[in-house]
Amino acid sequence: MPVIAPMPAARPAPIPGQRDGADDTVAAGTTVDHLTETYRAHYRSLLGLAALLLDDTASCEDVVQEAFIRVHSARKRVRDPEKTLAYLRQTVVNLSRSALRRRILGLKLLSKPMPDMASAEEGAYDLLERDSLIKAMKGLQRRQREVLVLRYFADMTEAQVAETLGLSLGSVKAYGSRGIAALRIAMEAPV
């Protein structure tokens, strides 16, 4: 089906001696021919500007083409033909900023990958190992157990363990080494 465009409204005839200044300034330099020439002359330099702001060539080309489209659609607001290039440069910068903002937002919204899940067998093995460690820890002397729990599970230094238990630093080291030796023997023994 053919599309029928409406006819432009008829303008009243100009009054002799009176200038319609607004039409002259809009028509000067904002024509499609002027934009086409600007496109041909400055496409590469605008592409270089976008390349300084963005990282991939496809995005740079998209930004520059979008800038020309936007300036073309708003060409009636560009009254001075000398400012067309300045408008284009500013539009390239603004569109590059918008593209970067969208990327950052997209990265923030990406879901974080799930950590590797252990298989059921691994979980059962870890549970058995933990149970045997708890059983072996219960078989230690009370001071050895206290030193090992504070040192390795509470992540305290030997000096902090000594202060907490009211022992000398040498006693903490002795209880710790004897406790680890006893755990090694208990964990290696067949159940």
From TrEMBL:
GO BP of this protein: DNA-templated transcription initiation
Gene Ontology MF: a single term: DNA binding
Highest taxon, organism lineage: Bacteria
UniProt KW keywords: DNA-binding, Sigma factor, Transcription, Transcription regulation
SUPFAM superfamilies: Sigma2 domain of RNA polymerase sigma factors, Sigma3 and sigma4 domains of RNA polymerase sigma factors
Matching Gene3D superfamilies: 1.10.1740.10, Winged helix-like DNA-binding domain superfamily/Winged helix DNA-binding domain (1.10.10.10)
KW DNA-binding (keyword) present: yes
Residue ranges constituting the RNA polymerase sigma factor 70 region 4 type domain according to the UniProt record: 131-183
Stretch list, region Disordered: 1-23
Span of domain RNA polymerase sigma-70 region: 39-103
Protein family (similarity comment): Belongs to the sigma-70 factor family. ECF subfamily.
UniProt protein name: SigE family RNA polymerase sigma factor
Native source organism of the sequence: Streptomyces griseoviridis
